[in-house]
Design brief:
Blueprint: H1 16-37, E1 44-47, H2 49-57, E2 64-67, H3 91-95, E3 101-105, H4 111-119, E4 123-127, H5 133-146, H6 150-171, E5 179-182, E6 192-194, H7 199-206, E7 210-211, E8 219-221, H8 224-229, E9 234-238, H9 239-244, H10 247-253, H11 261-264, E10 268-271, H12 283-296
Parallel strand pairs: 1-2, 1-3, 3-4, 5-7, 5-9, 9-10
Antiparallel strand pairs: 6-8
């Protein structure tokens, strides 16, 4: 071959050490290309208080540009723009914030609004209702994957699962478990409760009590016959719901609820509403707080 004839590159003629270096550089290039292809979301809207809390727990809160009105923790979210109640969203409001990712708790919508958002090229990821240990793990894994926080996600879900399992082990074999009835929106068209398949049912169970409405499913209005026929040991309410309803005095004056022994004897326990309507990083706090109040008020 003429010395001036250009030679094409052929890795086969390279020494073994050079082949190793070339292979490494090729792998590095592939990783860089794939990383650029799947850019991290930098403008996230979270829908649902538990979803928002998980994003912050995964140290990705700085990427949240707006939340819904159920997102009230941590304190940083109070200064963020609000897109309205998670079940009453508008496409215009969401699009105006120019998100590149929306993390939506199951039930967010209306569905046609989220479909419009997706049609506009914005990624919408639905997070299942966080109502038990399995769904917490699934939810955290989904959110961690979307925020590129897989390592922190695994650590968080393991911590929460371990905490809850330890708590449940302590109470599952108690010989006597007090009964608890959760009440919502008293004074606004009649009380509602949380039955089975809800975060509240899980919190009550892990606190060492039994949900008196566990035979119902999800949130249901309560008939007077059901309430009186299942006279609970304790009433559980959110602090806000009790305050809006007029406090314990209002319950005592209520022609139906005032007949319950729990109301007559002042066995009303309250939790922050942000702890009740979806499990998450602070679930163990809710369980321990409820257990503490029940144990403090000896039957």
């Amino acid at each position: 071959m003429d010395k001036d004839t250009p030679m094409s590159f052929n890795p086969a003629y390279l020494p073994r050490s050079y082949k190793t270096i070339v292979a490494f550089l090729i792998c590095l290039l592939i990783v860089m290309i794939s990383t650029q292809t799947k850019a991290d979301a930098n403008r996230i809207i979270t829908l649902g208080g538990p979803v928002t809390e998980i994003v912050y727990a995964l140290e990705a809160g700085d990427k949240i540009v707006a939340t819904d009105t159920t997102s009230k923790y941590p304190a940083e979210v109070l200064t963020l723009p609000k897109v309205g109640y998670m079940r009453q969203l508008s496409a215009e409001g969401l699009l105006s914030l120019k998100p590149d990712l929306i993390l939506a708790l199951e039930g967010s919508g209306p569905s046609h609004v989220l479909e419009t958002i997706q049609a506009a090229g914005i990624k919408v990821v639905e997070i299942p209702e966080l109502i038990n240990t399995a769904s917490i793990v699934t939810g955290i894994d989904l959110i961690a994957a979307q925020t590129n926080k897989q390592f922190l996600g695994k650590s968080l879900s393991t911590t929460i699962s371990t905490q809850l399992q330890k708590q449940y082990t302590q109470v599952k074999d108690l010989p006597e478990k007090p009964s608890v009835l959760f009440l919502l929106n008293t004074g606004h068209g009649g009380p509602m409760t949380a039955g089975g398949n809800t975060a509240i049912d899980t919190i009550i169970t892990y606190a060492g009590a039994k949900n008196i409405a566990a035979d119902l499913q999800s949130f249901k209005p309560l008939a007077s016959e059901y309430i009186l026929g299942n006279n609970p040991d304790y009433i559980l309410m959110s602090k806000r719901s009790l305050d809006i309803g007029g406090g314990v005095e209002s319950l005592l004056k209520d022609p139906l609820l005032g007949k319950l022994s729990a109301v007559k004897n002042g066995r009303i326990v309250t939790l922050d509403g942000t702890l009740l309507f979806g499990l998450g990083p602070r679930t163990i706090d809710a369980v321990e707080a409820l257990s503490s109040q029940i144990n403090k008020q000896k039957l």
